[in-house]
Amino acid sequence: MPSSLFGTLCPCGGLLAVDALPVTFTLLDTQFHVLPMQTRFPFQYGIASMTALPHLFVSVDMVVDGVTVRGLASEGLPPKWFTKNPDTPFELDLAEMLAVIQNASRIAENAAQMPVTFFAWWQALYEEQARWAMLRAQPSLLANLGVSLLERAVLDGLCRAENRPLHSLMRADALQINVGQIHPELRGMSLAEALPDQPLDQVAIRHTVGLADPLRSSEAATLADGLPDTLEESICAYGLRYFKIKLSGRIDVDQPRLREITTVLLENCQGGFKITLDGNEQFTNLSSFREFYATLSADASLVPLMGNLLMVEQPLHRAHALKDEIATQLASWPDAPTLIIDESEGTFDDLPRALELGYSGTSHKNCKGVVKSLINAALLKKRASSMGRPLIQSAEDLANIGPVALLQDLAVVALLGIPHVERNGHHYFRGLSQYPDGIQSQVMAAHSDLYRQHEFGFPTLDIRDGLLDLRSVNAAPFGCGIDLDVTQFPTLKAWIMGGGMAML
């Protein structure tokens, strides 16, 4: 790597000085491939219950400073997260997801026909996709799925072309990310100022407890696939200490279930535990959530649980969460729990708006955007001293699995320095067993710290004392240390013509 691009390398591999020249690239082509996936058992969250989904791979052929390279990103396309309309079938929701992704690929290619820097290209993609979505009344959260997949694929290509891991590329100024162009209050602040000096070497798993997840062995049908089925089995198998508990919003359902969860945690987490609650947009106004929360807080059997609550994520539906009256209602609720937004964050205006209303932060998810999370980190750091309350950037996940989507998200979590992350893909899917044997072998060779070979013959996450080892993730270009040949999976067109979701 030439020193003129990233500065002078010290013997330990760090940077003594940065004299960055911008990396430029052009995009040649984009391809889409699909791997259909089945869950081990239904994952119920909010209004959806997921049993199968298509895992979409987006690959881009690009030329980076004269070097031809392929970048890759992937995402499972789940029901009822990007749009929570109970009246539409998943087939229609999926068609909308694919439409925004394909439109983003068109914009991305047009914006990089001539050599362009990453941030200039990303701005063109983000802004044009937003205009397109507005004309078609597509929600911003959904539209940004397309932006996020293309930005990840390009970042992967840039990291591979420069032979640098993500954290090194981001701390240098080679990508020309200007946080002040998004939020004027950040003018003069560099992206490096918002990031830790080094990425995290390990991160704690925050285990999801879905609405229908079995808690004890007596509740579960034996899957006999070698992985823990229940909450208590998962705690014992993985040494879990952090948990994310899904809420239905019905006190008659949630209260007795939370009592049982509390008992399971007290019995099995001898070293203590911490929890977050996911409201799943189940409430339409803050007063109803306040009443719900007061009932839980007054329950003596839930004191051990509520006393270890870190935050509540998105209790209000996105249509109501950022209304003006929230500010007054939160100001008059002195003992309110720490609240953050998630699905409400569709644009860059939403986090500042949420902070002004009284929320304490937002979530990181790669599907919402890597650049968005980086700029959010800068904004939260800038405002931390003036808000009068701790500000939070959490790390959340719906059902990420490797070897691309999960590892890229972990690379960003490590880069941001977030100490615990919701992870449930390893619980709802049977490791990497749905991939061909060759890919499984590649993953084990490249990421033997992150994965272990299960006795049933497939790689699964190696969670020890509730922690994941991220050293190989941080050493890889963008999390994933293998060259994944996606041509062994059907193209998106072939998958659709072959029956698509009807074949799952």
The assigned structural class equals alpha/beta
Q: What Rg is obtained from the alpha carbons, in whole angstroms? A: 22 Å
CATH C-level category of the domain at 21-182 and 488-503? Alpha Beta
In percent, how much strand structure appears in the residues?
Answer: 15-25%
Q: Specify the biggest β-sheet.
A: 7 strands, mixed
Number of strands: 17
What is the average of the pLDDT values?
A: 91
The CATH topology annotation of the domain at 21-182 and 488-503 reads as Enolase-like, domain 1
CATH architecture of the domain at 21-182 and 488-503: 2-Layer Sandwich
What's the CATH superfamily of the domain at 21-182 and 488-503, by name? Enolase-like, N-terminal domain
**Gap from first CA to last CA:** 45 Å
Count of DSSP helices?
17
Helicity range of the residues? 25-40%
Name the shape in a single word: globular
Low-confidence sequence ranges? 1-19
How does this model look, in words?
By secondary structure, the chain is an alpha/beta fold. It has a domain at 21-182 and 488-503: Enolase-like, N-terminal domain (Enolase-like, domain 1, 2-Layer Sandwich), CATH 3.30.390.10. The protein contains 17 helices and 17 strands. Strands 7, 8, 9, 10, 11, 14 and 17 form a seven-stranded mixed sheet that branches. It has a four-stranded antiparallel sheet with strand order 5-4-3-6. It has a two-stranded antiparallel ribbon with strand order 1-2. A hairpin with a 2-residue loop joins strand 4 (48-64) and strand 5. Helix 2 (90-111) crosses helix 3 and helix 3 packs antiparallel against helix 4 (140-162). The radius of gyration is 22 Å and the shape is globular. The N and C termini lie far apart (45 Å).
